[in-house]
């Protein structure tokens, strides 16, 4: 009896590889045509395993269907007896079917070759009748078979847990072994399809903007820097598509969005990755309130697309409610209530530093009023947020691309959306006055001159676009990886198919 129910010692892998390579050589030597051997160019598949499962999943025990099929799958279980061999074939989606290879149906030579040449992990093609075994297992009574792809290395334990390091470094093994890994990939695809469907229903257009940029902008972040040989110039991997999407709005694309990759040369942890998928969207004649409504709809529709409900169940079994209308709280008011003193937009930097030090709050590099307020808010308020919550009205000096609040001096019309303790999305009433935008860029340039590597440069091309007139607009950005985290409860490295690791 052979199965994958026990871990394979590292020392045995090299020996197994040598044995499997010898089988590969024999398969190639014995092939009858150029398409055979260990790696044929194709096999005559007529049905998928999942389709047979759907049609015959409730078949009674010891039944013959009369349907003859050709299927292929990876062997994840094998048991060889004298005159009858059993194998579980697994499709890419994880669905399985049993193959029964008997002396009576395939003959002595073919049965002997199966026992000699077929291993766990091999892809095989089998042809035969769909039946149900005496135990009620949906099966193929094989009349002929063929190796579809010979596995040179053995599989890990398909009935045990891979450690996290193996899961993220060898995602292909994770996908073979673990149902959750396959489910997460499909959940991500369902999320993206749902986002696009919601935008389409609202008459948004999807576009693509440059990832290589002559200067970085659109967010406060440290960029990756590269060099173009063709143009002999320094280029930046984009940290955000914002400034290009706003150019599109200037050009008359009133409702525009993009789902694509961003790159930020910063730390990596359970909620941050240097490379990540980002959604950004802009809507003319909307504001940060309208964009909050849109974002709530996007997230709730995505949850329904993945789970069938706005009540999601995370990987640890916890239920989390994404339905209903979400709370909207003021950053300054919630901070004041939580810390026991009034914090206002006009508070001096020195006073805020003293208050932060007295409460063991880290002082950010190059402290400004806004950076200190946000650090204090995270310390006093963020930890207690449970429900999905829009945190409204941010300090002006940390939000250089955002319109000043229409009625509250010293803050801007910006929100951050927090779900299960992390920031999922951010939204603005967009700054469209090119004069004020230039002033904001100049202030950012001063911070950069003092050593702030996350400060934005002055973007003359973007300013020139604004000078041609951008309509009043609302905009938002949301991490796709973090949206999967909110729906599934997984860490960011689990939601990214192939995360960057050292």
UniProtKB/TrEMBL annotation:
It catalyses: tRNA(Lys) + L-lysine + ATP = L-lysyl-tRNA(Lys) + AMP + diphosphate. Mg(2+) 1 binds at residues 416, 423. Its cofactor is Mg(2+). InterPro entries: Aa-tRNA-synt_II (IPR004364), aa-tRNA-synth_II (IPR006195), aa-tRNA-synth_II/BPL/LPL (IPR045864), Lys-tRNA-ligase_II (IPR002313), Lys-tRNA-ligase_II_N (IPR044136), Lys-tRNA-synth_II_C (IPR018149), NA-bd_OB-fold (IPR012340), NA-bd_OB_tRNA (IPR004365). Its main location: cytoplasm. HAMAP family: Lys_tRNA_synth_class2. This is Lysine--tRNA ligase. It comes from Microbacterium esteraromaticum.
């Amino acid at each position: 009896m052979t199965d994958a129910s026990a871990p394979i010692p590292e020392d045995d892998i090299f020996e197994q590889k040598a044995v499997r390579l010898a089988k590969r050589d024999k398969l190639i030597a014995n092939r009858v045509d150029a398409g055979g051997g260990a790696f044929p160019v194709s096999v005559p598949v007529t049905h998928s395993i999942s389709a047979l499962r759907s049609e015959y999943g409730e078949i009674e025990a010891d039944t013959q269907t009369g349907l003859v099929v050709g299927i292929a799958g990876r062997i994840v279980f094998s048991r060889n007896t004298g005159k009858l061999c059993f194998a579980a074939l697994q499709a890419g989606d994880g669905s399985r079917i049993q193959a029964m290879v008997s002396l009576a149906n395939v003959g002595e030579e073919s049965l002997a070759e199966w026992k000699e040449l077929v291993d766990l992990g091999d892809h095989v093609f089998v042809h035969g009748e769909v039946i149900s075994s005496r135990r009620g297992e949906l099966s193929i009574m094989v009349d002929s078979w063929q190796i579809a792809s010979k596995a040179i290395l053995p599989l890990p334990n398909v009935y045990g847990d891979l450690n996290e390091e193996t899961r993220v470094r060898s995602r292909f093994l994770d996908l073979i072994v673990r149902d959750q890994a396959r489910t997460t990939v499909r959940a991500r695809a369902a999320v993206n399809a749902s986002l696009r469907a919601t935008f389409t229903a609202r008459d948004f257009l999807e576009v693509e903007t440059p990832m290589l940029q002559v200067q970085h902008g659109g967010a406060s972040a440290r960029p990756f820097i590269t060099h173009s040989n063709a143009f002999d110039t320094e280029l930046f991997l984009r940290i955000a598509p914002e400034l290009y999407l706003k150019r599109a709005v200037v050009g008359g694309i009133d409702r525009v969005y993009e789902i694509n990759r961003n790159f930020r040369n910063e730390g990596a942890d359970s909620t941050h990755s240097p490379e990540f998928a980002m959604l950004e969207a802009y809507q003319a004649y909307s504001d940060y309130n309208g964009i909050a409504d849109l974002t709530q709809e996007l997230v709730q529709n995505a949850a329904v697309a993945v789970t069938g409900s706005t009540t999601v169940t995370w990987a640890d079994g916890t239920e989390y409610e994404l339905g209903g209308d979400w709370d909207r709280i003021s950053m300054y008011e919630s901070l004041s209530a939580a810390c026991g003193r009034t914090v206002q937009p006009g508070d001096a930097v020195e006073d805020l530093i003293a208050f932060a030090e007295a409460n063991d709050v880290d002082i950010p590099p190059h402290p400004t009023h806004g950076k200190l307020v946000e650090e204090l808010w995270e310390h006093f308020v963020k930890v207690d947020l449970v429900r999905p919550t829009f945190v409204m009205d941010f300090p002006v000096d940390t939000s250089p691309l955002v319109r000043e609040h229409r009625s509250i001096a010293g803050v801007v019309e910006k929100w951050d959306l927090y779900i299960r303790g992390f920031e999922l999305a951010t939204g603005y009433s967009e700054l469209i006055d090119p004069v004020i935008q230039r002033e904001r860029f100049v202030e950012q340039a001063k911070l950069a001159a003092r050593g702030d590597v996350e400060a934005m440069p002055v973007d003359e091309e973007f300013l020139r676009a604004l000078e041609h007139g951008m309509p009043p607009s609302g905009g938002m950005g949301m991490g796709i990886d973090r949206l999967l985290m909110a729906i599934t409860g997984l860490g960011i490295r689990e939601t990214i198919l192939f995360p960057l690791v050292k």
